[in-house]
Predict the structure.
Amino acid sequence: MLASISIAGLGIWLAIQFYRTKRFAPELVARKWPKAYGLLFHKYYVDEIYDATVVNRVKDLGSVLGTFDANVIDGLGVDGTGWLARFGSTLSMWWDKWVIDGLLNFGAKMTQLFSFPVRMLQTGMFSSYAMLILVGLVILLAYYGHHMQVLLRGVR
């Protein structure tokens, strides 16, 4: 503890001698001990070492992560998911239009085609239905009447 206080006191005394009282010219000391002056002037190169080992490595990591984010996360994750959703919806719309609606419309057209004769008979008027019942009854009686005659002839 005494050594560190002594070194600090010596540093303060030297600074006063250099810059306050001008007893020693800093230029002379810088010329006499250039390496020591450069080391002290650059503050033991702590900032340069910190920039080289920490700050620049963090910047490099940020560049790599930025590239990874732009290409992988945005490219595959965000843009890829958007492309896949658009492709899936296009495929779904095509399937719905041509397969599902196509089958349903085909079934509807077949039903419409085969129901044409029935639609001709269905008018919604009671008198038309009564006439169809009478015609059906006459046809039925004629058919069974004819068969009854054939059966009666065969019995005699």
Summary: The longest helix spans residues 46-114. The mean pLDDT is 88. The helical segments are 2-20, 26-32, 34-41, 46-114, 116-121, 126-155. Residues 123-156 form one domain.
